[in-house]
User: Fold NUDIX hydrolase from Virgisporangium aliadipatigenens.
Amino acid sequence: MNDDGWVPPQVLLAVDLVILTLRESRMHVLLVERGVEPFRGVRALPGGFLGHVDEDLLDAAHRELAEEAGLTADHVHLEQLGVYGAPGRDPRGRVVSVAYLAIAPRLPEPVAGTDALEAGWTPVDAVLSGGERLAFDHRRIVSDGVERARSKLESTALATAFCGPLFTIAELQGVYEAVWSVRLDPRNFYRKVQSVDGFIEPVGPRRKPEVGRPARLFRAGAHKTLRPPMTRPVDSTDEKAVEA
Amino acid sequence: MNDDGWVPPQVLLAVDLVILTLRESRMHVLLVERGVEPFRGVRALPGGFLGHVDEDLLDAAHRELAEEAGLTADHVHLEQLGVYGAPGRDPRGRVVSVAYLAIAPRLPEPVAGTDALEAGWTPVDAVLSGGERLAFDHRRIVSDGVERARSKLESTALATAFCGPLFTIAELQGVYEAVWSVRLDPRNFYRKVQSVDGFIEPVGPRRKPEVGRPARLFRAGAHKTLRPPMTRPVDSTDEKAVEA
DNA sequence: AGAATAGTGTCTTTTAGACAGTATGGG
DNA sequence: CCCATACTGTCTAAAAGACACTATTCT
Assistant:
């Protein structure tokens, strides 16, 4: 910024994606096996470098979403998660990664990557508990993404992003239960979710299940922020702090 | 990432700071007048390019905090706000900016900048209403920062960052009133704020004011997240959406 | 005593939590 | 008729909102 001959350093910019979805009532994250060094053969978040100098960051995220996950922008929630730029995080040099959080409804299996040997949905518990080793600082990024999702379920309509365009209340409850790892009372959930203004709106038809009474269908309402918020049950696994 | 001769593009990385504080019961943001092109003479957020290739992002934020605002890390809350990387945002080329949100208690006036002609606290309303023109996309960044602060006041102990290490309950209420632009009932606020576990803890002495009964002093508690959260009164200025 | 600010108590309304019964489809 | 799932009520406990009084310091 000065005229004394100093020039600011340049960095490589990467975009990484934390794509979350629900499978068998558990939260999964999409991981791809790296085909090149560094961390060849280790699983990592889908992502890559900026395509060209003039590519917008959000466009790059959409491009990776399509290339590595085969997901089109339709019905996929995408938001910026944060920047990860610790100096030593990439052995190739100074690489700063912009992480995006994507929430997708359960989709048909196919996930074919271009520059990834293998792509697959992995339960987030397996990643967070350390059972699965990830490249770079991607475990931390996954952890932050999951925490973001958990938190935004309280105050925003993010849960609807895990569902298709039409969903039942029981489905929506399943989202909350899976992401928060809790059990909720269906009766109180019905009452609560329908009392929050603009959260969900009923649509005509009903869904015919294999067995049991057909359920009413809803779609996401107009309000993105929930007032009052959905309340997460107190987890008995909370930390106490010392008094000085 | 491939071996076909393509090399990923490099970008310039900047760090910008949204520093918020309270002055005369109003939220202010620190702006500096730019001494060089582009936007010479226009006010902008304090910030600058990465010092060297191996500088950590958070370190860079702390450095700018000291250089441009004269603030040491003590008693200053600093968190990442987001990345701003639209292709055309900087006429000098592809500059990606990592924005940090800083919350500081009211401090002695002096704010002496190095590469800024003039630095000063500006009411955020003046910035957000467009009364003050800012360089680059900095008005948007300020807007995001303010919104982040407003939101986190509900669910975290961020309000204590606006106060010094010791504060009274009335002071804390003033923070909520200023940031949210609302009036709160002192009696309900006293009850509420003391019932939230780990939010504030009493310390021995009392503060002697110029007039009136001395107030008890508190300090920030151990818990960073508030359960249950502080509830923001419903603003009558909320948007409605159409029904399809 | 009076002014000014700090702090406490009570009542009412709303919301959350726990729990049981009825309704509607397909065999 | 039985099963499985969808939905509706009711009671109770806790929290939020509205409001009035007492307490402590200084001049």
Q: What stands out?
A: Helices of chain B lie at 57-69, 124-128, 138-155, 169-180, 186-195. Chain B touches chain A through 47 residues (CB under 8 Å). The longest strand of chain B covers residues 10-23.
